[in-house]
Design goal:
Length: about 260
């Protein structure tokens, strides 16, 4: 693959960073379209998107560093090098949610409606960002004999070279596209606010639980198990989102019945 696409003088254009930016731009476009349908102006969506992008990247990078703490203690200069790959979506979400609650309270905007508005955007943005992850070779898969196994040969790649690997990045990208389409279909049949956002958490965490089985770059697992830290985080997110969906649905029914 091509971790570094080209250079503009002393500045290198890295595929990972470029596709993350493209993902953010597409996510913002989708959110602006959804925002108009919900009576929220594009400038408000753009400001909110920038805020969430900054907080999300910080949270996603922090989660990745903590999951690979031994390496980064020995190589602290690489902590800020996000163009080398290494973002954990669920980690970003854990920081974005409380930060967004604070932001929305200041702007007097409803959390569940905004969550639904952004949910499809997050799914498609992540799907596009994963393409850059694939090109950089981060989040690579286990060695495999399947016909679609990918062999990395670029010496700058973060993946092992010369052996067929599961293209886990593309699996994740495809999952993101499917989740995006499902959420857009659910949007047309939404019964209450918060439904789309909670389904994003359910679908993404379920995909993570399954796809992590094919990852070859997992450096640590929960003691006494084969579960990675990402899988544990995904499991906790899944349980919380399912319970949230149940309670939210029950609360809406009681409110409507009352």
């Amino acid at each position: 693959m091509h971790p570094k696409l080209f250079s503009l003088g002393p500045i290198g254009i890295h595929s990972y960073g470029l596709f993350v930016l493209i993902g953010i731009a597409v996510a913002l476009y989708v959110a602006i379209r959804n925002g108009r349908a919900n009576g929220i102006s594009p400038p408000v969506i753009a400001e909110m998107g920038l805020f969430m992008a900054v907080v999300g990247v910080i949270g996603a990078r922090l989660a990745y560093v903590l999951m690979n703490l031994t390496y980064y203690v020995s190589n602290p200069e690489e902590i800020l090098m996000i163009w080398h790959g290494g973002l954990v979506f669920l980690g970003g979400m854990l920081l974005v949610i409380p930060a967004l609650l604070w932001y929305l309270r200041r702007r007097h905007l409803p959390f569940w409606r905004i969550g639904d508005l952004w949910a499809p955007s997050l799914a498609i943005g992540l799907a596009i960002g994963r393409i850059g992850c694939f090109m950089a070779g981060c989040c690579y898969g286990k060695p495999t004999g399947v016909k679609w196994g990918v062999v990395f040969s670029n010496p700058d790649s973060l993946a092992p070279l010369g052996i067929p690997l599961h293209p886990t990045q593309l699996y994740s990208s495809l999952a993101g596209v499917i989740i995006f389409l499902v959420l857009m279909a659910l949007e047309r049949r939404k019964h209450y606010e918060g439904q789309i956002f909670l389904w994003l958490l359910i679908l993404h965490s379920t995909a993570r639980l399954y796809l992590e089985r094919f990852r070859g770059d997992i450096s640590s697992t929960i003691p006494g198990t084969e579960m990675s830290l990402t899988q544990l985080l995904a499991l906790l997110t899944l349980i919380t989102a399912v319970l949230g969906l149940m309670f939210r649905k029950s609360w809406i029914r009681e409110k409507q019945g009352g």
